[in-house]
Every structure is written in structure tokens, then in C-alpha cells.
């Protein structure tokens, strides 16, 4: 022992430092075991303590529907990673409404991450509060955003403003937004387009007032001149700022913005794969007929004469009761006793179309009188309509559409209990099929909502008549909608009442000629709500991961996918490169499309393939 005491002090200091280094290394090792890099290239960044998982579920479900592989990590997990681990995450999402406060350490890590080449998506009020919930003088990540956008000290609550949204045609296309959601504001084809929505004359969006010139690519602005969305470079990385409460909007039936920007972040910025939301990755339309009352039946023969019945399948919904406007008026279809109506229903059913219910037995009387609190009074109308149609088709009814779009929550609950898989929906305008909800905890297992597509405030032929749309206007929109679904490889719903087609017969003929040509080319399909609902429910079970290929000199990426039932018809869309993807295991086709690679599973539960990721093509100016 005395010999140890005689050692020089520098030896003791060396031993002490060695022990410290060993302890630090051990701590880092333990942290790496606790916080491994996520098995996806996009990470949703969550606070360590969550008050509620409601909004997190909204992001998780939006990613699933958009076909984006996204993991979740916490703030402390990201801070604990070393630079090499963080570099494996290609994009980080900082959500609004969830992550309002971040630590100085996390702010520093995020700035370093972007500067070194990462992509960060900052939403609305993220990183705008201190730990006590008070607004900061300046957002923690203001330097990354590039404009002033938290003016509380100067303006108080007036810093949040509601105004219309403007976007260029190029930005609308880059975000994958369907034709009609943005409208021209004048005759100048180069002018900005203005957001519109079905059922409202003017659509306004809450945003934070901004000040200053944005040093990058402006994607959207408000009429007051504030930046709504922009993409910029920072160091070697990219920052996407979206000045909209996309999380809040998602759970209030306006999920288009979260899903559109998520796809933009995944595809346009990061060049990552997308799981297609349609079978075999082939886009198309759901054509939804609403046959309200007896006066619609004579127009069914007109539709046949125009060639509608030569294509399909469609979703055709009937209101079956004897009355329409009020009890006893006898203006309804009275399917139970109407031989003509029964004949049409049987014929359409035999053609493979899906026969569904259009509301509750008396179209106008039901639509104009139901509310959120009187389900027990009106449930019999749903029961009677379902029974009448099932007595004709001898098949369980699986689809529904609300008369006049009036759809209280109790109706959805009834549909869920009675085996209905899908319904027409006037919320979530311009989206494809979605699990529409107010409470995400109650989302899974609910019927699929099929949002109606509209050209501004016009969705159907009869609305076009009221708004004095010319045949050329209707033709242009319907043909644009069809082309959109082909290019995007997605699906949208269009609807009408048979009498409305009378005023647009040339439009109908031209549209059907276009769809027939595209069907023959194998790039377009008609779908029913039920077909897609069943496909999407099975798609939800698909678990897939995106990982870098170890040791590859170029950015090759491996995709591993599993579905406990079957992967058949599940399709991945990959960014286009000269290098052909490589199928490592499973049964799938690889198609060389003009703008993408498409890999479609033909059978089996597992699939593994590799592809070469292209260099990012995201635009934007500016620097740190």
C-alpha cells in the first residue's frame, strides 16, 4: 500500500482520467442501446413527456395513409445520439401542437443536424414556448426558419391571423393537390391560385403573421403577405417551414395539409419510397351516383345511352323509402314496391357495381331534420333503407352516403356497428380515402371516409348548372381529375345525381372516352368504395422499414416489408434512377415507368428489395 502512496501525482491523475473516460464511454454505450437510430429515414420528434397521445396518433395515421415510413423518437433520444447516428435519419419532423417547447440542447442539436446535411420540417408553433408554457421573445429555431414569425411581444394574440391562402400552380402540383382545391383569382395564367373548399364561399386559414423576406422557395403565402410555407437550404441541409396548425386541422376533418406536406417532405425533399394507396399502384376514380327519389329513375336510361354502363364498377347509392320531403308525400322511390327501381338495382349489382344506401329512407326529410343528438329518433330510417336494398341484392350493404352531406357522429357509429365499410364524406376536401375522425383514439376499425372532390364550390353536375358552369369548364375539370389520379397513382371520389348529367351530356361522353382510353392503356381504373376499403384495411397491416445498405459506396437503400395476411397488390413507388431496383426476396414485379420505379408484390407475406436513392432535387435558396 505504501508503494502505491509513493506514486507521483501525475500517475494518479492519469488513472483518474482513464476511469472517467471509461465511465463516459460506458454511459454513451448504454445511451446508444437505449436510443438506437430509428428503423426509418423520417422521424417524428416528440417531447419526453406527452400530455396526450391524441395528436401523435394523428401523425402516425397520416403517415400510414400517405404511405410514408416514419418512426417516433423523443427529444432526449435524439440528443443522446452521436452525429453518425443522427446522420442516418434523413428527415426530422417537429410537429405543431405537440412540441411547443424545446430545450437549448435540442435546439443546438437540430441546428447542427441541418447544417451537416439533415432535413428538418418545422410546423407552426413548434419551439415557440418556454418550459412554463409562455411565448418566447423569439422562437428557438428562428434562425433556421429565416423569417420573424412570433410577434407576441409586439402584437399579443393578434399575432395569429386568419386569411386566405395563395399558392402557385407549380407548388400545387409539387404538393400533389387535386385539381379544383385551388382556384384562379383572375385571367392571368401566371397569377397565384387561391385555396377554396366545397361548401364554403371563402376558406381562411389561421397562421402566425410573419415579417421579412424568406431566403428560399416560397410554397404558399397568405393574402396579408405572411409566409405560409417555404423551403430553404441551411448549411448542407434543408428546412421546410409550414405556418399552419396541420395537426390541429387533421383531427378536425381537414387533413389535406398534413398529408400533402408529409408526402412532399418524403418524396420531393428526401427522395424516399412511398407505399401506394391503390392496388398495384394504379390510380383511378370512384364514381358515386346518388339516386335520391323516384324522379331520378327516368335518367338512368340516359346514363346507359351515354355509355356509363360500358365501364365501371361504380358505387351507386339509393334512397329507398316511399317519401322524400315529408312523411306521406309519396315522392320517394319506394324500392320495396317499385318494380322499375328493383330492376335497376339488380342490374347494377349484376354488373359488379356496389349498391349502397343514400341516407335514411326519405332523402330531404332525413337530411334537413337530423342533428348530433337525435340518433335514437332517426335510426329506423337507416335500418329501413338498408333492409330495402339488401332484400333486392341479397347481399350485405357495405356503403353509405349522407343526403346533403349531413352526417352526424351517431350515423358513423351506426355504420360501424352494422358492417358498413365506407362512406361518402364532405370533410377532408380533395383527399383520397381516409379514416376521418375527431378523436384519434376511436379511429381504428371505423369505416373509411371517401372525401368528395370539387372544383371550388362545385362537385356535381347539378351544382355546375346552378353555378352556370359551361360544358367546357366541367370537361376540363373532370379530365384534369382523371389525369391527376393517373399521374399521382392515387384515387379520388367524384359524385353526381343522374338528372344533373342531362345538362352536360357532351361532357359525359368526352370524359368516358378519356377514361376508356386510359383503361385500355392500363394506367387507370374505376374503383368502388368497398373494393378500396377492403384493400386499405389490409394495407394497414403492412409493416415496412427503410434502411441504408451497409458498406455501400453509393446511397443504396433496403426496403423490408411484411404483411401477416398477404402483400399481394401492395405496391411501392420509388424515385427514378438509371439503376434498376434489385429484388432480394419475395415475389414481385419491377416496372420501369416514365417517372418512377414501381415494385408490386404478387404473392406472399414478405418482400425485400434494394434501390439506389437519387441525389435530392429539393429547391431553395439561402444559407446560414
Spatial order of the strands forming the largest sheet:
2-1-3-4-12-11-10-6-8-7
The overall pLDDT average reads 91
Name the structural class.
alpha/beta
Largest sheet: 10 strands, mixed
Short description:
The protein has 21 helices and 26 strands. With about 625 residues, the chain is an alpha/beta fold. A hairpin with an 8-residue loop joins strand 7 (about 180-185) and strand 8 (about 195).
Task: Explain this structure.
The chain has 21 helices and 26 strands. It has 624 residues and is an alpha/beta fold. Strands 2-1-3-4-12-11-10-6-8-7 form a ten-stranded mixed β-sheet. A hairpin with a 4-residue loop joins strand 10 and strand 11. It is globular, with a radius of gyration of 27 Å. The relative contact order is 0.11. Mean pLDDT is 91; it is low at 1-5, 19-35 and 617-624.
Summarize the SSE layout with pairings.
Blueprint: H1 2-5, H2 9-34, E1 42-46, H3 54-66, E2 70-74, H4 75-80, H5 83-87, E3 91-94, H6 104-115, E4 119-123, H7 142-145, H8 152-155, E5 160-163, E6 165-167, H9 169-174, E7 182-184, E8 193-195, E9 205-208, E10 217-222, E11 227-234, E12 237-242, H10 246-250, H11 256-269, E13 274-275, E14 284-291, H12 298-306, E15 315-318, H13 339-350, E16 354-358, H14 363-369, H15 375-393, E17 399-401, H16 409-417, E18 422-425, E19 448-451, H17 461-466, H18 471-488, E20 491-496, H19 498-501, H20 505-520, E21 525-527, H21 529-539, E22 543-548, E23 556-562, E24 571-575, E25 582-592, E26 596-612
Parallel strand pairs: 1-2, 1-3, 3-4, 4-12, 14-15, 14-20, 14-21, 15-16, 16-17, 17-18, 18-19
Antiparallel strand pairs: 5-9, 6-8, 6-10, 7-8, 10-11, 11-12, 13-24, 22-23, 23-26, 24-26, 25-26
Helix pairs in contact: 3-11, 18-20
Amino acid at each position: 500500500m505504501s508503494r502505491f502512496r509513493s506514486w507521483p501525482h501525475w500517475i494518479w491523475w492519469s488513472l483518474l482520467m482513464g476511469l472517467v473516460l471509461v465511465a463516459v464511454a460506458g454511459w454513451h454505450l448504454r445511451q446508444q442501446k437505449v436510443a438506437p437510430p430509428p428503423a426509418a429515414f423520417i422521424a417524428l420528434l416528440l417531447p419526453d413527456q406527452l400530455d396526450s397521445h391524441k395528436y401523435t396518433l394523428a401523425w402516425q395515421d397520416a403517415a400510414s395513409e400517405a404511405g410514408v415510413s416514419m418512426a417516433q423518437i423523443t427529444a432526449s433520444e435524439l440528443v443522446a445520439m452521436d452525429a453518425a447516428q443522427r446522420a442516418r435519419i434523413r428527415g426530422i419532423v417537429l410537429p405543431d401542437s405537440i412540441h411547443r417547447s424545446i430545450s437549448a440542447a435540442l435546439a443546438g442539436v437540430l441546428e447542427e443536424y441541418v447544417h451537416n446535411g439533415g432535413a428538418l420540417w418545422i410546423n407552426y408553433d413548434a419551439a415557440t414556448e418556454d418550459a412554463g408554457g409562455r411565448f418566447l421573445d423569439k422562437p428557438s429555431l428562428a434562425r433556421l426558419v429565416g423569417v420573424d414569425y412570433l410577434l407576441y411581444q409586439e402584437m399579443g394574440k393578434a399575432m395569429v391571423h386568419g386569411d386566405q391562402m395563395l399558392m402557385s400552380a407549380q407548388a400545387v402540383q409539387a404538393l400533389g393537390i387535386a385539381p379544383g382545391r385551388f382556384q384562379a383569382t383572375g385571367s392571368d395564367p401566371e397569377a397565384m391560385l387561391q385555396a377554396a373548399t366545397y361548401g364554403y364561399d371563402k376558406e381562411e386559414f389561421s397562421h402566425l403573421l410573419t415579417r421579412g423576406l424568406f431566403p428560399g422557395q416560397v410554397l404558399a403565402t397568405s393574402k396579408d403577405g405572411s409566409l405560409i410555407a417555404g423551403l430553404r437550404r441551411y448549411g448542407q441541409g434543408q428546412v421546410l417551414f409550414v405556418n399552419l396548425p396541420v395537426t390541429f386541422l387533421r383531427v378536425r376533418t381537414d387533413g389535406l395539409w398534413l398529408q400533402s406536406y408529409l408526402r412532399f417532405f418524403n418524396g420531393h425533399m428526401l427522395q424516399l419510397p412511398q407505399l401506394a394507396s391503390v392496388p398495384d399502384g394504379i390510380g383511378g376514380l370512384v364514381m358515386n351516383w346518388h339516386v335520391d327519389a323516384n324522379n331520378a329513375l327516368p335518367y338512368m336510361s340516359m346514363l346507359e345511352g351515354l355509355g356509363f354502363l360500358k365501364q365501371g364498377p361504380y358505387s351507386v347509392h339509393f334512397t329507398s323509402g316511399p317519401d322524400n320531403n315529408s312523411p306521406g308525400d309519396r315522392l320517394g322511390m319506394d324500392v320495396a314496391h317499385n318494380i322499375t327501381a328493383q330492376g335497376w338495382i339488380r342490374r347494377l349489382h349484376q354488373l359488379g357495381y356496389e349498391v349502397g344506401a343514400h341516407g335514411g329512407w326519405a332523402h330531404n326529410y332525413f337530411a334537413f331534420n337530423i342533428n348530433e343528438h337525435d340518433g335514437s329518433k332517426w335510426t329506423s330510417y337507416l335500418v329501413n333503407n338498408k333492409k330495402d336494398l339488401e332484400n333486392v341484392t341479397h347481399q350485405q350493404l357495405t356503403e353509405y352516403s349522407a343526403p346533403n352531406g349531413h352526417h352526424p357522429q351517431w350515423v358513423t357509429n351506426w355504420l360501424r356497428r352494422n358492417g358498413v365499410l365506407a362512406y361518402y364524406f364532405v370533410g377532408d376536401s380533395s383527399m383520397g380515402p381516409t379514416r376521418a375522425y375527431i378523436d384519434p383514439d376511436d379511429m381504428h376499425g371505423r369505416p373509411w371516409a371517401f372525401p368528395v372532390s370539387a372544383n371550388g364550390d362545385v362537385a356535381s353536375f347539378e351544382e355546375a348548372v346552378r353555378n352556370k358552369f359551361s360544358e367546357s369548364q366541367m370537361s376540363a375539370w373532370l379530365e384534369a381529375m382523371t389525369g391527376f389520379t393517373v399521374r399521382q397513382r392515387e384515387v379520388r371520389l367524384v359524385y353526381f345525381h343522374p338528372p344533373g348529367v342531362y345538362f352536360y351530356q357532351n361532357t359525359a361522353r368526352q370524359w368516358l372516352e378519356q377514361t376508356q382510353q386510359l383503361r385500355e392503356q392500363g394506367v387507370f381504373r374505376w374503383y368502388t368504395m368497398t373494393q378500396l376499403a377492403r384493400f386499405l384495411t389490409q394495407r394497414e397491416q403492412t409493416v415496412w422499414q427503410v434502411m441504408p445498405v451497409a458498406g455501400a459506396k453509393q446511397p443504396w437503400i433496403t426496403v423490408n416489408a411484411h404483411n401477416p395476411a398477404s402483400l399481394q397488390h401492395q405496391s411501392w413507388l420509388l424515385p427514378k434512377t438509371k439503376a434498376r431496383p434489385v429484388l432480394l426476396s419475395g415475389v414481385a414485379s419491377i416496372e420501369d415507368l416514365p417517372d418512377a420505379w414501381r415494385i408490386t408484390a404478387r404473392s406472399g407475406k414478405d418482400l425485400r428489395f434494394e434501390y439506389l436513392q437519387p441525389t435530392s432535387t429539393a429547391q431553395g435558396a439561402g444559407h446560414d
